[in-house]
User: What shape does this take?
Amino acid sequence: MSRIISVALFLCISVGVTAQAQHEQPKVVKINDSTYMAPLGANVYLVTTPAGNVVIDTGTAVVAPDARKLLGAESHAPVKYIILTHGHADHIGGIGLWKEPGTQIIAQRNYVELVNYVARLEGFFAPRNAAAFNRPFVEAGPWSGNYGAKIDPTILFDEKYEFTLGEVQFQLFSTSGETPDHLTVWIPKYKTAFIGDNYNGFGEPEPMSFPNLYALRGTKPRWALDWVSSIDKVLVLKPDVLLSGHGDPIVGNPEITRRLIRFRNAIQYIHDEVVKGMNSGKDVFTLMREIKLPASFDMTESFGKVSWSVRGIYDGYAGWFDMNVHDVRIATILRLPGSSQTRRRSGTPGAARTGKIGSRQAGRGSAPDRCRPCL
Assistant: This one.
C-alpha cells in the first residue's frame, strides 16, 4: 500500500513539474497539503502550519518577487521562520521580501563566514560569475572590508536546532557539503528532507551529474568526506520525500536511497582514488588524467567534472607546492609565471610537470581540461 501511495504522489508531483516546464508562467508544485514548491531555477519552499508559515530558501533577487507571489497565493498566514539551507546568492536573494516583523531567520553558524568571504572578494568574483552564469558583467562597488556582508539570520546553530510551530516539528542538522554552512531540514511528520544543493537534481531523468566538488569560478575546498558524511545523515532519516535546491522532488524511500547512495559513493570513490594517488607519489596533473568515474555509476559530467574535482581535492589537501625546489625559488624572488626569467628556467611557457612529484625531469605536458577563459 505504501508503495502505491508513493507512486501516486510521484506521478502527481511529476505532472506538476512537467506542466510548469510546458508553460512560460511557472506554477506552484504541491508536495502535500502543507508543503509547496516554487520552481524558479532555485527552488523556494513554503511549509504551512496552523500557527504560521515557514519559508525554506528564498531564490535569487531576480526571481524572488515571482516566488513571493506564487507561494503567497497558497497561504496568507504570517511567515514565522525563514530557513536558509546555505548562503549562496540563489537561495538568499529574497529574504527581504519574505521577512515580516517578528520573523526569525535561521542558518548554520558557518553562514556568517561564507557571506563575508563572498563579499570580501566581490570584485574578484564579479567577472568570473558573469562568465560562469552567462550574464552581464556588473562592476563591483567599493570594497566592503573583511567582514562587510549583511548578516540576516537571527538564529545561528552549530550541529542541530529544533523548533515546533503549529504542532509541526522542524529539525535542522548541519550537513556541510557544497558549502560549509549547508543544513538539512527534516520534518518527521511528513518524512520530508530539504537538503539544499547537497544533491544535484539536474539531469532528470537519469542519469544525473557528478557534483561540483570544485567550482571553476573559484571556491574554498569542498571537503569530500564531509559531503559523504552529510549524505549519510540524510540516509539515516529514511525520508519518503527529498527536496533539493534545484530540480524535481524525489519521492519514495527506495528511489531516494538508491540515488543518494550512488551520489555518495561516487564522491567517496573519486576522493579515495586521489588520496591513493597522492600517497603513491603521483602529481596532480597525472591524477587528473588517470582518474575516471567507473561506468557502473551511470553519471554524467554535465554539472561537475571529475578532473576538476580531482584537482580540488588534491590542492585542498596539499596546496600548490609540488616538492620542486625550482618553483620555490621562482616564488621566493617573485618571478611571476610568464616572465622572461621564468620561461628560461622552466622551458616551455605554461608547461605542467607530470609523473612523480619532485622529479625535475618528469615528462612535460599541458594540464588537462584547462578552461579558456579559466573561470
Q: What stands out?
A: Residues 1-23, 342-354, 358-375 have pLDDT under 50 and may be disordered. The longest helix spans residues 253-279. The chain is about 35% helix and 20% strand. The two ends are 50 Å apart (CA to CA).
